[in-house]
Automatic annotation (TrEMBL):
A cellular-component GO term for this protein: cytoplasm
UniProt modified residues of type N6-(pyridoxal phosphate)lysine: K308
Family under the similarity heading: Belongs to the group II decarboxylase family.
This protein's name: Aminotransferase class V-fold PLP-dependent enzyme
Keyword set, alphabetical order: Aminotransferase, Decarboxylase, Lyase, Pyridoxal phosphate, Transferase
PANTHER family: CYSTEINE SULFINIC ACID DECARBOXYLASE, GLUTAMATE DECARBOXYLASE-RELATED
Entry keyword GTP-binding: no
GO biological process terms on file: carboxylic acid metabolic process
Single annotated GO MF: carboxy-lyase activity
Native species: Aeromonas caviae (Aeromonas punctata)
Short name of one Pfam family: Pyridoxal_deC
Reported cofactor(s): pyridoxal 5'-phosphate
Amino acid sequence: MKLTELFTQPDPDFGKAMTALLEHFHHSDDSQAPYQRGSFTHQLDQSCMPTIGISPRDYLARLATLVPGASHLTSPRYMGHMTAPLPAFTAELSRLLVMLNQNPMKMESSRLLSFLEREVLAKLHRLVYRQDDAFYAAQMHAKDAALGVMTSGGTIANVTALWLARNRACGDNLFALAEQGYRGAVILGSRLMHYSFDKGMDLLGLGARSVWRLDTDEHNRLSLAALEQALQQCRKQKLKVLALVGVAGSTDFGSVDPLPELAAIARREQIHFHVDAAWGGPTLFSPRYQGLLTGIEHADTVTLDGHKQLLVPLGTGMLLCRQPDLMMTVKREAPYAIRATSFDQGRFTLEGTRPANALYLDAAFQMLGQQGYAQLIDANYDRARRMAALIDASPAFELMSAPVMNLLSYRCIPPHLQGQVPDVAANEQINLFNVALQKAQRAEGHSFVSRTQRAVSRYGEQPLTLLRAVLLNPLIEEADIHALLDDQVRLGNQIASQLFE
Ligand SMILES: *Cc1c(COP(=O)(O)O)cnc(C)c1O
């Protein structure tokens, strides 16, 4: 076979085989190829490149051994992570996008798709900030303005927000803060802030200790008393507060910080106000639930993730800016490509070359519409309430937080401790039990939730192992929820008899 044929001759059988692989995958679960580290690493232990290439058709045999080992995230009984099943049209759309291979870092390598990116960002900006037609007409395609940037995900969006906030405070020169009389710089947020903020402060040269994780109230929201106290401490220690972070949909609980109050404090103190709505942002589509996010419109910057509740492929995040000139504080240029006088989005993005994933968002916006998203959100948030009620009604479970969005935290209680108020020693036993249970459920492979470790106010400071359910898949039915909980009760009984006899 001539190498050039790889570029010119699509093999129709290759495409058909791919469809068959996917079809089979979507009708199975992790029990088909149980996770065992040893067998997985043994399967993939070759460090030498092949000397001679094989045909795509011969490569199919290898693919057939790889695909079943992937995580079956699209199963409606997998409620453990924030990764969604994708609408079926995504498969063909991704073929188009990948083969167009556009690079929206610069106009010359993406042309119209650069402007599509701006249009998509404008629609989301409007969802969050609700400016008028005149604003969007003037700003959407303005040259020295950006309503936001596309990123590969929430992490890079949060890091970009810190970068903006730092440059707002002192340009790219941290020593300028010393000249202003500061002895250091910090960001303030709740203990539930995503760990991407630690990465960001580390990269800015400020270290993870500059991330102040403050106490939360009994609803897992940033405590305003703790915030005022921290601000006082910063004044006393002459620390510059680079940003106040509000979380709109915490990773563990889906809780939302008191955004209107945080906005008022940030305005009073003249601090950059960032809202991390990577998970919760799309709540704004739902007339029923959008009130949860009141106050987000005051944020200077907002992080959104497309690859979570907007149901587009991985690698799609965004940072929105209330004021379109804010991005100028991080503007960078390169003479060969990213020219100062251009429309190149690469002037503002932390990432360089990246895919034109705005097309996925455009397709989803056009085909689902605002109402479609609202329906999916409402159904998921309602399902979470239904599942919470089932958990709350059973002595075999303890619900650890009332559902705000569609994330639930709970734990299983072993039979001998059901119906009691657990003390510290009992909580330790329950922790061990839930770790073993989560692992056993994962190993069995029919259903799945993730686990985390958090203190909850009911039990003071003691770290507790919590099970975490994410109700994101639109195809989850009541029977799937029952099946998942039944698996936990059944496995729990087996584990309790091994652990506690
Ligand atoms: C998922 C998430 C992030 C990180 O986003 P990635 O896309 O995984 O980089 C940050 N903050 C919150 C609240 C999240 O839910």
